[in-house]
Amino acid sequence: MKLFIVDDEKAVRDYIVSLPAWNRLGCTIVGQAADGWEAYETICRAKDKRPDVLITDIRMPSMDGIELTRRILDVCPDMKVIFLTAHGEYEYAKQAVKLGVVDFITKPFHENELVDRVQWIRDHRLDRRRPDWVQQEAWIQSLLTMPHREMPGSLDLPNTLNQPVIFFFIEIDNSGLLDDLGKPFTNLTLREFIADVMTSFPHTYWSALAHSGLYLVLFMSPSATKEQSVHEAMEVARKILGAIGESCGFSISIGISDLLPSVTELRRGREEAKKCLEYRMLIGRNSIVAYSAMLLMQEQKREQSEMNRSELSDLLRRGEQEPLSDYLRSKSRTFMMEGISKTRIQEACMEMVETAGQILHSFGIQPSPEETIAVRKDVLSYTILSDLMAFMESFLKNTASQISAVRQNTPIHYIDATMNFIERRYMEDITLQMLAEELFVNYSYLSRLIKKETGRNFSDVLWEHRINIAKEKLSTTSMKHYEVAYAVGFKDAAHFSQLFKKMTGKTPSEYKG
């Protein structure tokens, strides 16, 4: 394969020309030039020795690389062009696509990077028909920036508008750091790799350059289910990830949207795919995150948060201080094992403060605004986890102490005592009179209080608890229904059966199955 080198820096030209790898690849340097105009004239004159690959700088005197490429491809449309530049601007890459440039390499570059690209062109690219990337760029960018009803007819959109699609955001990991690390990236290289991968799939696809990677629109079969489409999209993503590997000198992660009814929903698809990539911070490089999986992770996170809030609420409502120490130790271990950031730890502690405030309010305790602000300020001031947890333990125990004091003088205390009494002695022949005597409270007052707070009489609460225990025994033991009746405190098996059916809709035998 014949190569032509263009750069206004002689040292760069000499370096490229002298690379020993060209002999190994069977490549010949047929010419070099210091600017675009000199290169254009030399190539046009050498009709019998025109190069297969033009390697050119972009910023040069007389004629820059973009104008050179535009003119050369008019004369030699099959020539492959690689851009070299010290400037990694996104706009250059977009112009390169429109011109049909096969790669865009930023200086300083590594020898292997340039050699590998030339070898790739030699092995895979010379005879392959290139997709109409310019047209695809126009379609995707228009669909992402304007409503369908406002699109100009000049776009000449194909008859796939109503075909379901899945949107991929294929982003280069840590793209902003690659130049500093001496590993400049090119999304044109990424596009070439993906074009190669897609030849093994039957799907129609479009692609467009993004600032830090590539957008890929995958057209799915209208007859496929959503599950089938998502599964196929994951297969494509895995194949792309496997093909990239370490070949490009960088890694990628892929965000995959939900199944979209048509390309007119591309803006929604891009937002979904971008949200997926936010999880890369936790998952790491080479991540593939589908929107449906992300929603599941978010739901699990919400459920866990609700469980934590519910557990803390129960502890505070009981007004017991010691269990709060175990609760906070467990939270602290979770923070350390998951490597959660300072901000996320502070957010979790703020949620605890908010929960404590809600419980205090339910007991008629209203901290002053100054107290609330002071607590929040303290939470944000700590930078050491152990110190923050010690503060939270003191704060929550103080909250529990306030609640305990209120409970001793409110109806809630008597209701809790009633439930505790029933749980301890439901097997016995207990009465409300026995409970009143145990609590040293007036029988009539306790009866009215239970009715007011629960909406039921003491006997109804007792029977409901006994029936719930009976349901558990019927489901988990081999006991006969009459044995269960006596075990849960009923003296009459017939009365038990009658009450059981009234409360569950089934007889004990039917329930046991």
From TrEMBL:
<keyword id="KW-0804">Transcription</keyword>
<dbReference type="GO" id="GO:0003700">
    <property type="term" value="F:DNA-binding transcription factor activity"/>
</dbReference>
<dbReference type="InterPro" id="IPR041522">
    <property type="entry name" value="CdaR_GGDEF"/>
</dbReference>
<dbReference type="GO" id="GO:0043565">
    <property type="term" value="F:sequence-specific DNA binding"/>
</dbReference>
<feature type="domain" description="HTH araC/xylS-type">
    <location>
        <begin position="416"/>
        <end position="513"/>
    </location>
</feature>
<dbReference type="InterPro" id="IPR011006">
    <property type="entry name" value="CheY-like_superfamily"/>
</dbReference>
<feature type="domain" description="Response regulatory">
    <location>
        <begin position="2"/>
        <end position="122"/>
    </location>
</feature>
<dbReference type="Pfam" id="PF12833">
    <property type="entry name" value="HTH_18"/>
</dbReference>
<dbReference type="InterPro" id="IPR020449">
    <property type="entry name" value="Tscrpt_reg_AraC-type_HTH"/>
</dbReference>
<dbReference type="InterPro" id="IPR000160">
    <property type="entry name" value="GGDEF_dom"/>
</dbReference>
<dbReference type="GO" id="GO:0000160">
    <property type="term" value="P:phosphorelay signal transduction system"/>
</dbReference>
<feature type="modified residue" description="4-aspartylphosphate">
    <location>
        <position position="57"/>
    </location>
</feature>
<dbReference type="InterPro" id="IPR009057">
    <property type="entry name" value="Homeodomain-like_sf"/>
</dbReference>
<protein>
    <submittedName>
        <fullName>DNA-binding response regulator</fullName>
    </submittedName>
</protein>
<dbReference type="Pfam" id="PF17853">
    <property type="entry name" value="GGDEF_2"/>
</dbReference>
<keyword id="KW-0238">DNA-binding</keyword>
<keyword id="KW-0597">Phosphoprotein</keyword>
<dbReference type="InterPro" id="IPR001789">
    <property type="entry name" value="Sig_transdc_resp-reg_receiver"/>
</dbReference>
<dbReference type="InterPro" id="IPR018060">
    <property type="entry name" value="HTH_AraC"/>
</dbReference>
<keyword id="KW-0805">Transcription regulation</keyword>
<dbReference type="Pfam" id="PF00072">
    <property type="entry name" value="Response_reg"/>
</dbReference>
<feature type="domain" description="GGDEF">
    <location>
        <begin position="163"/>
        <end position="293"/>
    </location>
</feature>
